[in-house]
Design brief:
250 residues; alpha+beta; Metallo-beta-lactamase, Chain A; 6 helices
Length: 250
């Protein structure tokens, strides 16, 4: 499998849930509001024998010429967004789902950003996101998912096409899910915001912003141990330095 990180940049975020761009060469974290977290926003493309898979969809920002940033990042890596066949969504918080849809060029209505893909979302997560009054979700980005034939609503745990395993953890958020993509002897693991950064895998850390912080901590410990034993490749959405840790590499 080929893994392509699609970094949209570094940001700070505080209790307002506003993602503010951060340049490590010019900005100081101490100048940001107290409690600000420094994070990367980094979707991934995984290319398998059967699919071009996008895992989470970024913030939905556009670059200076108006192109959706995640589309530009794909094109910079030789991928046409129309070639994406599957979009796996860990959850629908705005920093993970902003790129699921975009505004049309002519009529201003929102449409799916990856029109050839099937989107895989937990049914309860979509229902919760559309009903919840929270700054973590942006409903206008998600409305077009509701009745789309391109969306497959998952319930609980299962397998997609025999080689992608999903599990609803209810850890970082109420209906959060994680994924294992297996091809041959290789296993790619994506923990979303249950396992967002490399350093969190190695420490006993309970985050106040998690729905069930203790469960997140426990799952990270279990995944990290099992991943080393079984030589998984870990993908970290919010890690500034280490997007991929590959235990299968020699």
């Amino acid at each position: 499998m080929k893994i392509i990180p699609l970094s949209e940049g570094s940001f700070t975020v505080d209790k307002t849930k506003v993602f503010v761009p951060f340049d490590e060469e010019k900005d100081k974290l101490s100048d940001r509001p107290a409690g600000s977290l420094l994070v990367e926003v980094q979707p991934f493309v995984v290319i398998t024998d059967n699919d071009i898979i996008l895992i989470d969809s970024g913030l939905g920002f556009r670059n200076q010429d108006g192109t959706l940033q995640i589309h530009q990042n794909m094109m910079d890596n030789g991928i046409n967004p129309s070639e994406v066949t599957k979009v796996l969504m860990s959850h629908l918080h705005k920093d993970h789902s902003g790129g699921v849809s975009c505004t049309g060029d002519t009529d201003g209505t929102r449409r799916l950003s990856f029109p050839s893909a099937k989107y895989y979302i937990q049914k309860q997560e979509l229902e919760f996101a559309l009903s919840e009054h929270s700054s973590s979700y942006v409903k206008k980005d998600l409305d077009c998912l509701k009745d789309s034939s391109h969306v497959e609503l998952l319930q609980g745990n299962g397998t997609i096409d025999g080689y992608i395993q999903y599990e609803m953890t209810s850890a970082h958020s109420r209906y959060h899910q994680v994924f294992w993509i297996r091809q041959g002897e290789q296993t790619v693991f994506y923990g979303g915001d249950d396992a967002p950064q490399y350093q969190q895998m190695k420490s006993r850390y309970v985050a106040k912003y998690d729905y069930n912080g203790k469960k997140c901590m426990q799952l990270r410990h279990e995944w990290w141990k099992k991943g080393q034993e079984e030589k998984w490749t870990f993908l970290f959405y919010h890690d500034i330095k280490k997007a991929v840790i590959d235990f299968s590499a020699p």
